[in-house]
Amino acid sequence: MLPLLTDDAAVACCSPVTEGVLTADEAERIAHTFKALGDPTRVRLLSLIAASDDGEACICDLTEPVGLSQPTVSHHMKLLVDAGLATREQRGRWAYFRVVAGALEQASRVLRP
Amino acid sequence: MLPLLTDDAAVACCSPVTEGVLTADEAERIAHTFKALGDPTRVRLLSLIAASDDGEACICDLTEPVGLSQPTVSHHMKLLVDAGLATREQRGRWAYFRVVAGALEQASRVLRP
């Protein structure tokens, strides 16, 4: 089964930051997404995956460009997946990742002034 | 002097996350902005400031809505100012803050798929 690329539950909840006072719950959900984006390695990993053939990257191809061990990269990817910004599919020995365009779009929308 | 509302140095540097592999330097700058946004209190503070009269809020009016002490709110605001997402102006006893719309717009653009 293909990963669901339109899953944007992460920030689908929320009005834009500049469009009225956010509730504590909305702020919590928005911050969760941005916390995942608040690390340079994770930002690079998203750009590496998005730039891969067919928009999909094997964990085995992500370690070298960021210069980190596979467990460390796996940990960063887990945070991105938990935040809804990437999907993970296990195929045999390797995990494959895709960027969730809908979640990036939602996060982008929340910041639009 | 009015705060410079078009200051977008924070992420003006950077191409969108999904438009090619980011350099380590670009990823660092992008992550710095999103780290500042990766906290629910700071997200709420931005929305409170943006929703204030004339888009400006006194620190004295921000503590009660978020239920935190003034030093804690000041600390959160410092991180937002350092990331270029807000400006601070001291007038007499109080500091006044504004959201930097240009910085939010840049951060939004970086995430646009």
UniProtKB/TrEMBL annotation, chains A, B:
Protein name stated in the entry: ArsR family transcriptional regulator
Gene3D superfamilies: Winged helix-like DNA-binding domain superfamily/Winged helix DNA-binding domain
Top-rank taxon: Bacteria
Source organism of this protein record: Microbacterium wangchenii
Residue stretches in coiled coil: none
NCBIfam families recorded: HTH_metalloreg (NF033788)
InterPro entries: ArsR-like_HTH, ArsR_HTH, HTH_ArsR_DNA-bd_dom, HTH_MetalResp_TranReg, WH-like_DNA-bd_sf, WH_DNA-bd_sf
Keywords attached to this entry: DNA-binding, Transcription, Transcription regulation
Residue ranges of domain HTH arsR-type in the record: 22-113
Presence of keyword Transcription: yes
